[in-house]
Design a protein that fits this description.
Helices cover about 15% and strands about 25% of the residues.
Amino acid sequence: MRRLLAAMVVSVVFVSSTAAFASSHREAPFITRNPKVDGTDFYLFNSYETGRSGNVTVIANYQPLQDAYGGPNYFSMDPEALYEIHFDNTGDGVEDITFQFRFQNALLNGTGVALPSQFPDGGMSPAVAIPLINAGAVGLADGGFSLAPTGFQGQRETFTVSLVKGNRRTGAVVGQLSNSAGGATTFAKPLDNIGSKTFPGNSYANYARAHVYSVNFPAGFCATPGKLFVGQRAEGFAVNLGTIFDLVNAPAGLITSEANPCVPAGSTRACRDVAPNTIGNKNVTTLSLEIPASCLTNAAGGTVIGGWTSASVRQARVINPTATYTVPAREGGAWTQVSRLGMPLVNEVVIGVPDKDKFNTSEPKDDLANFAPYVLTPTLPQLINVLFGVAPPVANRGDLVTVFLQGIPGVNAFNGANATPAVSEMLRLNTNVGSVFAPRPAGTQNNLGALGCYVGRTATLPPTLTPGASTCDASGFPNGRRPGDDVVDIALRVVEGILMSGDDAPGGGIPFHDGVLQDASQFDSTFPYLKTPNPGS
């Protein structure tokens, strides 16, 4: 629903708009001017790497649609920005735990790599800085690499992660995450995958893997170590982008059928798997953490946590008329949020154009007052009706409020004795869903996630939650979100009313999809799960 839905909105209503690209890529007018702080995808799920049960993995992706050949500067993070991952463990729509990421960029010896020139008479000129961030290979053909910066690597990017309890601005800064090996609180971020000459053979995969850190949390938060990785990864989202933006230029018989083979497309594959992933050659920058679930939950909220990511910049910026590498501008004032992402697709296809920037600056606790009409009376089904003649569901969509703003009772609604039933948009994850629903290993995940747990829909009755259903995979979206969950197809079907009766939602039984399959096989089965980024050459 990410781009299929966004495309429907854009193509029918605002054909000239360029506000959206994918799950949350360029989704609001102002964020298009600030790509370094543009959150693209947010994942929150129970870790399914072998031997890592009992942990929660969170992945926050930034900087959309990176072309792998995007040198010479590539895609460092903004040292003047604050990137945050928030957790609500009571259900009131207010953060209780926040991880704050800050980045630092430095040049080798203050200049980067500098090389002298030889004059015809044999003399040498003073060393002059080169225009590239490296002057030699970092990787080796046998898969080895240089982890420590060398004279060949002219730019080094590092980061720190602070932990805040309570309000993100006025709460207690508990401390910083530290490397379990040695105790350092500053971590190296790997270079982007410049290409096969800088990283020959399989050296980039090994180089990036060496930047997966075992980390200790500040005292008083969690005694069990976690995992941390920050760096470039292959774009994990899949979407039939060009076709969708061209007024959904596909036969209705294709995008409403799950047939295998897909006869309308003349393919041997199923209809959900016939179209190319048009952003499959792009990269993103990911902030990844694995945290023991017991350190995130709270008795008041039960076994459920809510999560979202945001990015903030300083309120004021003065451009330096004689810019330097370290001071291109002067920035100051209060941190001001410019990007927000929890559930996928919300700002793209639910929030109206006048309020997209407002959504990015808002917090979940204010969603009921600010955005409830967009959920109760969604416009997307009306647009689908215009395009394909599918009658929209009845108004006052309480089912969408439950799925996207409150959590599904018995699945991912806050279940503590004192849980606050706030109406707020975020990903909600039951960290102990296996106590009711049988967990599935990565190879057997249903890419329609928890949607398969609802069966028995009739003309007069909505489907019922059935934990024992063969298709039930309650560890998937909208119970959190795993990399392999096909959120486009899930969200399309929910918006069209699959959780309502046939009389209330005539199109609810249609298996809408965008023709591009998303499943667990497209990702690694180990942390940080997203694949090695595409190389620049």
